[in-house]
Amino acid sequence: MLIATRHDRLRDARTVLPVSVAIPVKNEAANLEHCLARLGRFAEVVVIDSSSTDRTKEIARAFGARIVNFEWNGKAPKKRNWFLLNAPPTQPWVLFLDADELINEDFCNAVEDAVLDDRFNGYWLNYRNYFLGRALRYGVAQRKLALFRVGSGLYERIDEDRWSGFDMEIHEHPIIDGLVGEIDVQIDHEDRRGLANWIAKHQEYALWEARRYREFTRDRSAYENFTKRQRFKYRNMVKWWYPWVYFLFTYVAKLGFIDGRAGLNYAFYKASYFQTIRLLVQEK
Q1: Quick check: 237 and 213 in contact, CB under 8 A?
Q2: Suppose 276 and one of 46, 103, 137, 206 were both cysteines; which one would form an S-S bond, judging by CB atoms 3.0 to 4.6 Å apart?
Q3: Are strands 134-135 and 101-102 parallel, antiparallel or unpaired?
Q4: Which string of DSSP letters, residue by residue, matches 224-280?
């Protein structure tokens, strides 16, 4: 068992990082203890829970995390922004992790260096995806802007009152006032809930993306805050060639084929995900 036996467990002898780690969750008992077990160097750990019915809260308490319950009313702010505005971090920096994301000692050392650099108010983070039990070393890299100085920005707000069922920001990123850097050390993204859960989650994401695309065609004001990757995606996402180009890009150009069966299936499912978005947009 990875659960701590007492909440005042010993921290790493090295520097305690002036960072609040915020973990939004709902029924994440399968993943959460593995995530929390690696956070001993951070000054604060907060679990933002959406009324979980499994052992999520029990696990969070065992690790001494601050537990904040979030009940969404269907309007802004959503989970991450609500936390920043209503139950804010106690530390000058905040790191948002998902329960299925695992850090290591090298990442902690990189964060220690990053928060001492006065030039930057935020950092893009890099991730190593796991699929079918295997780490994917190649393919399209996942990136998120998930470490930033408290007070320097909020997650982009999307008017979803009429159509979204997600209580948390999904593919939105923070809009940061100031320079943004990058941490190269990868975070392991390893969901232990199985392939069926992965597929179901991406079906929900596809529906959200299709609805957001339709809203975007009506109101393009969000375009100015898009990253280059977002701009390319929303310009081309409903074109017939996009899923197939994505497959060739991640599997061939980005060497996904070296990851064997896992790399092939991951590239296939991601292409299928974009095809699903395209068909959903066309249907409406």
Answers
A1: yes
A2: 206
A3: unpaired
A4: GG--HHHHHHHHHTTSTTHHHHHHHIIIIIT-GGGGHHHHHHHHHHHHHHHHHHHHH
CA–CA gap between residue 104 and residue 266 (Å, rounded): 24
Q: Is residue 248 packed enough to be buried (19+ CB in 10 Å), middle (13-18) or exposed (0-12)?
A: middle
Rounded to whole angstroms, the Cα distance separating 172 from 239 reads: 22
10-15 long-range CB contacts below 8 Å, 24 or more apart?
10/40, 11/40, 11/41, 12/40, 12/41, 12/105, 12/108, 14/41, 15/41, 15/112
Share of the chain above pLDDT 70, in %: 92
- For the residues 177-187, what does the mean pLDDT come to? 97
Q: Check: CB of residue 40 under 8 Å from CB of residue 9.
A: yes
Q: Where are the beta strands (DSSP E) in the chain?
A: 17-25, 42-49, 66-69, 93-96, 101-102, 120-131, 134-135, 142-149, 153-155, 174-176, 179-189
Could you give the CA distance from residue 257 to residue 75 in angstroms, rounded to a whole number? Answer: 43
Distance separating alpha carbons of residues 157 and 97, to the nearest angstrom = 19
Of the candidates 128, 127, 161, the residue with the CA atom closest to the CA atom of residue 145: 127
Q: What is the pLDDT of residues 226-274, one digit of tens each?
A: 788 888 988 899 999 999 999 999 999 999 999 999 999 999 999 999 9
* Residues 36, 65 contacting (CB under 8 angstroms): yes
**Whole-number pLDDT of residue 159:** 67
Q: Say which DSSP state 84 is in.
A: H
Count Cα atoms within 13 angstroms, Cβ side, for 34: 16
What gap in Å lies between CA 45 and CA 39, rounded to an integer? 8
Reported confidence tier of residue 5, pLDDT bands at 50, 70, 90:
very low
